[in-house]
Amino acid sequence: MFNENANKLRKLMAEKELVVGVGARDALDAKLVENAGFDFVWSSSLGVSASYAIPDASLISMKQYIEAARSMAEVIDIPIIIDADTGYGNANNVMYAVKQFEAAGLAAMSMEDKKFPKDNSLLAGGRQELARIEEFCGKIKAAKNTQKSEDFIVIARVEALIAGWGQQEAVKRAIAYVDAGADSILIHSKSKTPDEVVEFVKAWDRRAPITLVPTMYPDLTEEKIKELGKVKIVIYANHTFRATVKAAEEILQEIKRAKGIHTINDMMVPVARLFELQGVPQMKENEKKYLL
Asked: Phi and psi of 64, rounded to 5°?
């Protein structure tokens, strides 16, 4: 089976020093990420959960996450990496998910080594319980043995630093996951400095490239990441929808204050911009051709 988007992502990783993507919660976010010129879209479980206004805690179904990613894939041409949380259950759930991911045209999946159900990694006081290494290796093997396209990418997300289990545990887990077949290691951290991530990267001696999500340590810029080497993928995971919430709250407060919408035109895009993003001009061109 040929997976065009997975092949695109593989080629980008081979050709570019660093491949950079941004998180999306829906197809409109994904379109904006593509238009901004990024390499891929991260279909964010936090974002999709937030679109339902519920916690990012394995509360909605695999189907809901996949349908959100599928809607993105239908309107953009850049690859999508889906944030698959813990794989939605055990290895059987992972195998079913991989079939659905490839059918939806997704390029890659990221799966984390926490127990199901999970709490968001950045949640203060959250439950950060790690699965056994052997169990998670089984999930990775299940994913790799299920995929039909050799280009499909499985990213193993190591949560040992998030859980406070330290560098030695993080490295041990990462090595086991690569040995099980993972294509990349996502080392995650909630530290406000990049020090522990940099320490991990410097200690990493396997061929599998590293994926970073610098949400909490924004001082680690792309130029600094390139200097580290070994890192191939960078994900800005949640910035589109965080920005949307801020803008929406500000405009709603202004409408309430002004008791009308007469003061807010400069705070919004015109309706015509929405039509462009929705593909209305192309629809009208098609009407001229085919509505005879």
From this structure: -65, -40
- Chain region(s) in the chain for CATH 3.20.20.60: 4-241
Instruction: Say how many CA atoms lie within 13 Å of 97 toward its Cβ.
Output: 30
pTM (predicted TM-score): 0.96
56 belongs to the catalytic site: yes
For 78, the 3-state DSSP assignment is coil
Q: Which residues contact 6 (CB under 8 A, 6 or more apart)?
A: 79, 106, 107, 108, 149, 151, 152, 153
The residue annotated as part of the active site, out of 39, 56, 119, 151, is 56
The CATH number given to 4-241 is 3.20.20.60
In order along the chain (292 residues), what is the average pLDDT of each group of 10 residues? 95 98 98 98 98 96 97 98 97 98 98 94 88 98 98 98 97 98 98 97 97 97 97 98 98 98 96 97 96 92
